[in-house]
Amino acid sequence: MNSYVNICVCITPGADISDDRIAKDLAVAESIWHPITFKIKEVIVLNELFRFCNREISYKNSIQSQEKLSSFFQTCVNEAPECDLYICYIGSDYFKETAVIACAYSLAKQQQLTGYIVLTNSAAPMKNIYTLAHEIGHILFTRRIHGKLTHADPHSPTGSEHHHSPSNLMYPIVPSPNNVHINSLLTNEQKALSLQSPLLQRKKQ
């Protein structure tokens, strides 16, 4: 049984997608989250309305309180409604919180889960190549426990979304490929949890 996620790639003005960045990001993410694959169903190029500047997006504030971000996500969904995960490349270098270069959001409507990932240009260098895979982890870990959405790491006794080890993909500061080999980023428990994601489509061999 092949497990895959239908994705839409959204590109905003100023986004650095040179050097096959998108293909490399997805190849690394698939290598890390194997056997899950990420199928590009749509690629959307947004207009100047959705040019984002530094500090314009906050990862701490709700999507609903950020009108432009909310409108951006809705536009992507309207143009590619059959996708389950929207990977958005934006033209800024960081969020309102200056150390933040990417963020994942999960929204549930009528029990239907949709994932959104925002990647800044600061996530483009090779040292940050694990960033997309880290954000995908937050989306894959999103699930309902006692009727409430959580994206807690399976190893966290407190319900934290991050792992305690600096060499784990889900550590708050994403490891660099220079420090951690791609095959030792995840635990078996993390891989098992990812395969239970409600976003996964399954295709018989």
Structural summary, described in words:
- The chain has one domain (2-203): Collagenase (Catalytic Domain) (3-Layer(aba) Sandwich).
- The radius of gyration is 16 Å and the shape is globular.
- The chain starts with a strand and ends with a strand.
- The strands form two sheets. Strands 1, 2, 3, 4, 5 and 8 form a six-stranded mixed sheet that branches.
- Strand 1, helix 1 (21-33) and strand 2 form a beta-alpha-beta unit.
- The protein has 205 residues and is of the alpha/beta class.
- Helix 1 (21-33) packs across helix 3 (131-140).
- The protein contains four helices and eight strands; from the N terminus they run E-H-E-H-E-E-E-H-E-E-H-E.
